Each structure stands twice: as C-alpha cells, then as structure tokens.
Amino acid sequence: MPGVQKVPYLASLLSGLILGTSFAPFYWSFGVFCGLVPLLWVVWGRNWREAGKYGFISGVGFFGVLIWWIVPTISRYGHLPAWASWPVVGLLVCYLAIYPAIWAGISGFVSSRLGWSPFVALGLSALWVLLEWIRGHLFSGFPWGLLAYGLSPIPVLIQTADLWGPYGISFLVVFINLCLLGISLMVGVPSLLRVAGSTRQNYIHPFIPWKQVAVSAGAVVVVLGGMAGYGLWSMDRVHLSEVRYRSLGVAAIQGAIPQDQKWAPSFASKTIGIYEKLSIQALRDLKRDIPRLLVWPETAMPFYFQESGKRKEELLDFAIKHRCALLVGSPAYLISPGNEVSYLNSAFLLAPDGKVHGQYNKRHLVPFGEYLPWKWITWWVKGLLPSAGEFVPGTSDRPLVWQRLRLGILICFESIFPGLSRKSVRDGANLLAVITNDAWFGKTGAPFQHADMAVFRAVESRRWLIRAANTGVSEIIAPWGEEYGRTPIFVRTYITHVAKLRNDITLFARYGDAWIIVVFLLLSVGCCIKAVFLSIR
C-alpha cells in the first residue's frame, strides 16, 4: 500500500524534527534523548543504502529546523535575492545531512549483522560523535547543533563537559537513544516499520530477550543518574570553591544599535554616547571596593580605535574617570610593507591608567562572511555576496592582562569552538569574555542557539564568562553553567554581577578532546570490523 510505505519516511522526518525542536527557540531539551529513536526504528536491520537514505531525510529535517534563519540573514545583509537564498541554504542543509546519513547507513549495516547489544550501542554512539567532531573541523568547521547543546538549559546534566567537552555528552545522549531502541525492540516497533517500508515485506526483526531489555533500561537509569549525580556534586563543589578566588565586578553592555545605523558616520557619536550612558548605570550597580570590568560587544565602536583621535581619547578618559577596565570591540587593520591593507576583527582592553593593555584579533573567521575560503574555487561567490569581507585571522590566543585579570576573548563565531577557549585557559586565562553582534539574525532562534553554546565554554573550563551582544543575548555565566541576567533581544540594557578569577584547570582544559576521540574511534571501528567479519564469514 503506497500510503503505508510512506511511514518510514515520515518516521525519519519526525526524528529530525524532534531533534531540531530540542534547541532554541523551542527548548524541548529532553527530545535529544529520544529524537534518534524513530530513525533507528526505520534503519535497524536494513541495508546501508536504504538506511542512509532515511538518515539523510532525518538530517534535512533536523538542520532545516535548526538553521533556517540563515535565509533571511543572507537575503538582507548578503544582498542575495530571497528566491536565491533558499537554494543556498538548502545546499548547506544537504551537506550537513550527509553526516546523519552516513551514521544511519552504517547503523543499518551493523545492526543487520550484529543486532542489538551493549557493544553495538556503544560503537554506534561513538560513531555519531566522530561524525560530529569531523563536522566541527572539516572545511573550517561548523559544530552548530551538537546534540549536547540541546541540554544547555539544564546545567545539572552538562557538568561532565569539564571532563570530555560537548562530544562526551553527545556520546551519552546517543547511547541513551540506542538503549531506548533496545527497549522498543521488545515490542517489535522496528519490525512493523520495516514491513511498512519494504517492497518484499518478508523481513521481521527478531525480538530481543528480556535480559537485554533489562540491560537497556538499566543503562538508561545509570547514565541519566550518573549525569545528574555528577552534576549535583560538581556544581556544589565548584560553587563552594569560589571563596578561594579574587572577585571582579563585571558588566555586559547591550547597546542594541540597529544594524542599518551601526556604520553610519552621523550615528557614531550617538553610539558612543549610548554605551557610555549604559556603562555609567552599570557601574552604579557594582561595588567600588573591587576592580571592575565593562564588556562592550563586537565592533561596538564604529571606527578604527587603533587610530589616534578624539573618539579614542574619549574612551580612555572614560576608563580613567570611572576607574574601570573596558573591553571594546573595534575593527582594525594592518598595512604590509607593500602598502597592502589587511583587516582584523579586534578587541582592545583599556585600563584605568589610561593605557591600552592589549589587542586581541579574531582567530577563527566566518567563511563567506568575513573571508572567502579557497579563493581559487570560490572567487565567483563575491559576485553573489558582495558583502563577504576581506578579513585576516589573528594568530595569538594569549589572554589580555590587567592587574590580576587575564582575559581570554572569543569574538562571535569563535564561541562555538571548544578548542579556542581551551587554548586561552591553557595560556592562563582566568576569565572568559564573548563579544558578538547577533543583529544579523533578527528575531529568530539563532541568537539563543549561539548563546547556549557559550554555557558549555564556561562549564568546560570552569571559568566565569561574560557575553556581551549588540542586540542580545547578553548574559553572565557561572562556571557551573548558571546564567545570570540573560537579556531579551533588541533591548537596550546591561547586566552586572560579581565574578571570580579562577585558576584551576579541568581535565578538558588540560588535555582537550583528542583522547576521547581516540577512544570513540576505537569503539566505532571495532564495532564495524566485527560486523564486516560476520558478513564475510
């Protein structure tokens, strides 16, 4: 029956939709624990071609819901017609969907040879994480939508990030999905879907024994209980240890400058006035007996701060007068001996002594936004996206220093990469700052998705993190993932808090994710080799 044969397609799409709505702005976070189950019902026991097809459908649903907001962004600011924006984003979605397609194809192959077992569940969970890791590094990397990030609103479940980063939490999430599959195999749901979508309709996946159902159920309880138990213990431990560290009054200033006015020369003085007024209000809320730091967003200053002039002196005088340190975002440039100009996306740290205590230049630029990758291939994109910048990346991850503050900085896109903040902490950063301008995304889920990833940067490194966004979301995040003063978007406001300058080093900050990726590689390869061996035999 044609209608019945559509059931596997619908189940695959449902899987993607559940995962997509687990993230902002929907925040059905617990969906990440079961979102893969409908897809697994469909692919379990199928050949790899069919399974891969259903995985691709699921991936399109997932990433289509997650990143649809790129369409209005490139249409409005990339000067690309709306009719052309959808295909461009569609190509990106299709590329991202290849990863769940590969995972589903291999899952079908392995399950058709090995069935369900704890070893298979571990191997396939490890495989998903390897594909997430590859997606986060290949072609400059785009680790947006790692399954772990769906849990950012639930701090108690993400504390193991200080051990193995977001990839380890994604591993646990997928493992729970596979354990729920093991439980559902008892009632034969995958068998019904297999029959519904098969042209031969002659395959019934055997029920798994009660013993394995008990193992599956027990594993779910142990993993969830372990995540929550470690979370409660570590949150309490980190919170109690705060008394050992020096205090710093911090404020994130959200100017909410409209993007279409931000770079107008006539609006520059007003922009500075807005930030100064909000900063004075924030300083009144901060204690005067401790050092104070104000954080302004990415390119908050619509001029080249590095150049001498009235506006630069005004900012330095502000820091002197109000006895505070000031982190400001500003464009910058370099001139080569051949008079070739290179542009930088930078942040400057100003201190109460009236001096500039360092400049940080963005290390990981946005492809097709701040630069064109592989220009010998993508030169033609400049005609479609004339706003694509000609920026060059910075090369140093060293913190900016003022008194006892060692400030690690992430600018916009950089905050989605765990390795960048880790390097800053390894180099001595005792506080993290994320400055960004998310006005490009409008009133969509993108600013919230972007902010949610910063929660992980704080937990991974056990550092206080101040996030200042031009139009929001701005927030101050504790080392245990609690968010203070999360702002609404497109509102002119500020938030303040007392942070601590921590110098402890977590397992993740010290060793990164290389060790756990090797373990996951061995697990997944071992599972696949066993399936291939049985297939040959």
3D structure, described in words:
The structure is a single chain. The protein is an alpha/beta fold and 537 residues long. It has helices at 2-5, 7-20, 37-43, 48-67, 70-77, 82-114, 118-135, 161-184, 189-197, 210-240, 259-262, 268-285, 310-322, 375-378, 381-384, 418-426, 446-461, 507-511, 514-536; strands at 246-254, 292-295, 325-335, 341-350, 356-361, 400-402, 405-411, 431-436, 465-469, 475-477, 483-484, 493-501. The protein has 2 domains: 2-240 and 514-536, no CATH class; 246-361 and 395-502, Nitrilase/N-carbamoyl-D-aminoacid amidohydrolase (4-Layer Sandwich). 49% of the residues lie in helices and 14% in strands. A 6-stranded mixed beta sheet has the order 5-4-3-2-1-12. Strand 2 (292-295), helix 13 and strand 3 form a beta-alpha-beta unit. The two termini are 36 Å apart.
